[in-house]
Amino acid sequence: MPKTFMEGSGAVAEAVRACRPNVIAAYPITPQTHITEELSRMVANGLIKAEYVTVESEHSAASVVLGASATGARTYTASSSQGIIYMAEVLFCISGMRLPVVLTCANRALSAPINIWNDQQDSISVRDAGWVQLYAEDVQEACDMHLQAYRIAEHPEVMLPVMVCMDGFVLTHAYEPVDLIEQAEADAFLPPYQPQYYLTPKNPLTFGAMLGPESYMEVRYQLDKALRDSAKIIEEVALEFQKKFGRFQGTLIDTYQVEGAEIVLVAMGSVVSTIKEAIDTLRKEGEKVGVLKVRSFRPFPKEEICEVLGGAKEVLVLDRAFSPGSGGVLTNEVRAAFCGRKPTPQIRGHIIGLGGREINVETIIGIIKNRAEVGREDKFVDLKEALIGG
Amino acid sequence: MEHRLKKYLRTETLPTPFCPGCGHEILMHAILRAIDELKIDPREMLFVSGIGCAGWIPSPHFKADTLHVTHGRPIAFATGAKLFNPRLKVMVISGDGDLGSIGGNHLIHAARRNIDMVVICANNEIYGMTGGQVSCTTELGVFTSTTLEGNKEPPLDLCRLVEAAGASYVARYSVMHTGPLITSIKKALEHKGFSFIDVISPCPTQYGRRNEFPTAAAQLQALKTRCIPIEKAKKLPQEALEGKIIIGEFVSKGQRDEETDKDSGAGGTRGGAQCPAPGAGSGN
């Protein structure tokens, strides 16, 4: 089938359609809206046999998919920014009940100030919700990731929700040539969901009941173990996807030009493509530079990252989200992964592109050329000194 | 000559982001007119708004304290401000999606407590800003970007909702009824207790284009026949009210102390003046 030139959101909606969700619940928020609008159109036109509900809030959207998933349905929702944060209470419940919900986060900055543009503060802020978190580099990967996401989520050894993160506007609103997934191929890769435990009058169960100090900790331990162990499944599913569809965008991580690289950049999401462009330019000038893409932020692939970065002299981490008072979240995770290991490369953190601030090839080249300026504290790149004041 | 209301605006923030033909600018004018006629200094007021097109009516345009907050919560934020500074005149301006859908719980509880504030709902019957999705006030059968076969869920009548919850001043007008609307905003500003005004303010971009209105003017004009004053509506049979919007004052109780619910006004019982259902809005 030839490639289709289409908007990222429409392409993701096509991928979700091919996954045959039974229940879709969503609330409008920019820049997620086009995905769910397209899905509502498909439901209206009979292209998906799903229940679609435009609920009264994101909190309700997450609650509806929780309820539906608990009864054994394959469910889907999408949101952004404040919507993700508003869902947070329910996100923890979904993972705690081990429900394989798939959610698309069209990454956007958080209030206040109100900002509708792209960074990754929303999904990063719910990193502890117990969800698998995958970050897509381009529209094709975002599409393919949804098929993989259901396989990972519904795997009997995983049974965890998956958040597919794609940069708002940069990917959701960009038009790219995409290989759409044909229904028969999707069905062969993703069979119908067979829940092990679900709410049915035939076999009454209790989900989400109270547990006291005598057993709560063990359940939390099991959640952590399942999330850590899902790394193996994420890898297997990516490799199986490659075998079936001939496309590979990485397992837990992906790398570009890291062989013999002295400087390796680390990043997540669409900025990785921009970094690759910068690397091509710098390689021609003789700079030994490469990039490591973190595809799975949860589970966090410490071993894989250290293996790739261990050979580099310098590591430059680029964060699209940060923990105020501490620093770049990805930077801190990479630093922690190296703790106690030798050799440890010099790791420098950069906070970039908050609230849609432009990141282009020159920005990346600037980061690489000016790296010596960055000390132990992460650098906010391209800050406008005039706006900060004295 | 400078426009008499220009002094209330941060002119550097103009033009407003509203689409041509949007009702929100008419409402913005009506609010400032009411404040001007009452000779209230808006700098003595606090305007709280949520997310959506309507949130932009006061923020950042009004030369006053404006608090632009998270989606659905302006009433809760306003409650906090009012509790700490009871003499502050607090006005919440937001949309139907913000106040009725995602923030519906705050709306009913503020009405229940009869907190002294004015809540103005710029009701365009759709989510305008995010691309025209169905909202809790979209009439049955209306086409939106998420109801391609026509809306199947009956709308909420926000006036009846807050009346039932205990609001002491409740009215509805459209932006085509600016005279009574300004009078109503003035009454609400002078009223002590929870005042709610539902203002039908059409969205030509997201609603009009998808439905039977080829132009913004046609959509505004249609409000003249869509809206029926409550006095007239009371004399009409239910069938004649099908698809109509009832406008007017539904509740106007006298002074009432917050929390204690001591009603010295007409009736003394909740829901004093019953308003007829606006057509399809009575379902469910």
Description:
The complex is a heterodimer of chains A (390) and B (284). Chain A contains 13 helices and 17 strands. Chain A is an alpha/beta fold. In chain A, helix 9 (271-284) links the parallel strand 10 and strand 11 (289-294). The N and C termini of chain A lie far apart (59 Å). The model of chain A has no long low-confidence stretch (mean pLDDT 97). Chain B is built from nine helices and eight strands. The chains are: A alpha/beta (390), B alpha/beta (284). The interface between A and B is medium-sized, with 22 and 21 residues.
Quickly name the level 1 CATH class of chain B.
Alpha Beta
- Looking across the biggest beta sheet of chain A, what order are the strands in? 3-2-4-5-7-6-12
pLDDT below 50 for ≥5 consecutive residues: which ranges of chain B? 259-284
Q: Pairing-aware structural class of the strands and helices of chain B? A: alpha/beta
Oligomer: heterodimer
Our count of helices of chain B gives 9
What is the 3D shape of chain B?
Answer: globular
Strand content of chain B: 15-25%
Proportion in helices of chain B: 25-40%
From the alpha-carbon coordinates, what is the Rg of chain A to the nearest angstrom?
21 Å
CATH C-level category of the largest domain in chain A:
Alpha Beta
Portion in beta strands of chain A: 15-25%
What is the terminal separation of chain A in angstroms?
A: 59 Å
Q: What's the CATH topology label of chain B?
A: Rossmann fold
Order of helices and strands of chain B: HEEHEHHEHEHEHHEHE
For this structure, the CATH topology of the largest domain in chain A is Rossmann fold
Q: State the order of secondary-structure elements of chain A, H for helix, E for strand.
A: EHEHEHEHEHEHEEHHEEHEEHEEEHEHEH
pLDDT averaged residue by residue of chain B: 90
Described by the principal axes of the CA atoms, the overall outline of chain A is globular
Count of alpha and pi helical runs of chain A? 13
Mean pLDDT across every amino acid position of chain A: 97
